[in-house]
Amino acid sequence: MDRWGVPEVSVVDNTIYIFGGVEEPKLEPYIVNPDDDDDDDYERRMFDPFEKKASDLAYAYDIDRDQWRVETKSPFPWKSTNSVAVNRDVFIFSGMSKSSYYGSHELWKYDTVRKNWSQKTSLPFLWGGLLHSCSIDKKIYFTAEGGSHSRNIIHVYNVDLDEWEQPIFINKRLRIEKMVCLDESIKVFAQEYKVNSISGEITYNSEPASTYSDNGVFTVHYNGTTLYSDVSQERKFENTIARLDEYLYFYVTESEVNEATIKRVNTRTSEYEVVASNLPYNFTNILFVPTDSNQIFLFGGSPLFRSSDSRVPKDVVSEWSHKVVKGDQ
């Protein structure tokens, strides 16, 4: 797995489902000219996402049996996908094909019981950045990392009717990184952009701290009228975010320390908790999957880029997994 092939996964009946991914290109031998400083053919073929083969396989990991299996073939080869589970169905969206940097508008449903696919009504909107989702009461809520110039809109998909409902218009300008659907509201982990008090436009600066506020958990009511930040989380060098029920989980690393910390926040009560600390690895581009209140899975990953005296191995970790059990580090 690499930065172009880390999909967002779903958990159904204690099984983790992964759709899409990439394979490393098979490079043919070629002659390197030692006098040519511009010979970047190897780097181009090795790291250019268009040179990588998208996968049409979906994999499932049985948590109880600690076993992987090939679950099914996807309708298309996808480099990466996003997904959200509704009961025993998994909805896949924003699939990236080999020939595109952008996510598709197609919406697919995979029935984990009948093992079949069906195409649903396509996403009727454009978005900027990553597309996030959460579900509750047979509805899926979608919003983008940046929205359209960060004028955030939450789009609502009715699963039973296969229809798109009236969207929710947020009354603030946010850079959203993850969302959680609760009965009474939607919680989003985001940064609030600083806006000009007269024009209402975002004040962009070269320094991120001058463009938006610190990270926080914002409460969005379903009518979109009330929004406030009640939790703050300092951003470290790398910070992978996942969700489980009402919790947001953070895999936190720093650029000069060969260790990681896992934290979580209860979005209902705003209480922070350290789940695991001083973990002896420091990876990026991982699958970070909490599966219950006491168990988290980490799959794949690669070491962060840093100085030559780093204790982290320089080679990419292509096959690596770890289970973190709370209180057992």
TrEMBL record:
Signal peptide: none annotated. It comes from the Eukaryota. This is Kelch repeat-containing protein. It comes from Mucor flavus. The lineage of its organism: Eukaryota, Fungi, Fungi incertae sedis, Mucoromycota, Mucoromycotina.
